[in-house]
Fold:
Amino acid sequence: MQRKNHTKSYLKFNLLTLLFLSLFFCSSVFIQKVNADSDEIRAHEVCDAAFNALNEKFYFKSNVNFKKLNSKFNHKINDLEEAHKYINRLVKELKDPYTRFLTKEEFKDEQDLISSSFVGIGVKLASKKPVIINVLNNSPAQENEIKPNDYILRVNNKSTFGLNSSQVAYLMRGAKDTELTIKLKRGNEVLTKTLLRKELNFNVISSELLENNIALVKIDSFIPENTSFAFKDELTKLMSADGIILDLRNNSGGLMKNAIEIADMFLDEGKIVSTVSNSGKTNQYANSSKLYDSSLIVLVNENTASASEILASALRENNRAIIVGKKTFGKGLVQEIIKLPDESAMHITIAAYLTPNGNNINKKGLTPDETVVNDDAQLKRAKEIISRLKETGTKSRLASL
Structure:
């Protein structure tokens, strides 16, 4: 009898154990399925957000069949990796070099630049090729004697052949205090440099007082939000200068508002820029915030682009400045940053801009008033023009040409 009860208890225990394991297994499968479904839903949310933003805002959307594009690429998407591939394929079909997808990490890097702080080695690359066009002061790159015009051949044993500047910049990204090895070509010489990434403050404004009371003010970028404020602080120190040389060489642009606000510091009145979008045309005018009234020369080159071209054309076409240097890059399109649900983002071309005289410089660039090829000769010529204006007592750009 006792043995019989023991057998019943044993069977009962096994049945309960089996039931528990079955429930546990079923619930585990359910949880995994819920997580899988959740990932798929989130991935589709990211795709839908990207697609809808392009469909609504893309400047050249009249040339694109978005419905056809969506059906071409939007197959079953199970996770965020597939979602990002879908967005990249979608963007590639638009054939606009300025509309692009940014991963969460790339977007964070960009936001760090806008807030004037980032981790890196302190180099700026040309728009299309992995050529260094600028080296930040007090950066690992400067400390290791990396120079403008150095061509990056390899990044940590990864060849840069066939990669654009954004892709090379991505390879160079990394955490603070980590090593980066790059191979450079400088003329006929090949150099290998190992650098330690560090946190850098992106100080884009620098100035110096040259001979004959002429000031040189350089703006490296319009990316940081505080660029116009920093420029204003620098300008107020130079109010007694007999002329200012504004150096926009190798400045590939950034936030349009910075260019508009700086142009306003030199203008009493007049149109600064017009933007043309799918919803119409918007004009930006000077609002009588003029701070400086003496002679102004702007230096430009083939890497002067976007917001820099807006500033240069606004000053020239309002007869406020003379442009010296080489023909500019020619980027006449405006992008908006769209944040996606997973913290990734997109740059979407939303408008074209026109100079005050209504010129579209996209793919054309600005031709200087005086074309001077050599960098040192550009600065020398700018100083000569200001000295001549000072001698003749002339401030008007028209009178000096």
User: Anything to note?
Assistant: The chain has a mean pLDDT of 88. Residues 117-201 form a domain with the Pdz3 Domain fold (CATH 2.30.42.10). The longest helix spans residues 2-57. The two ends are 120 Å apart (CA to CA).
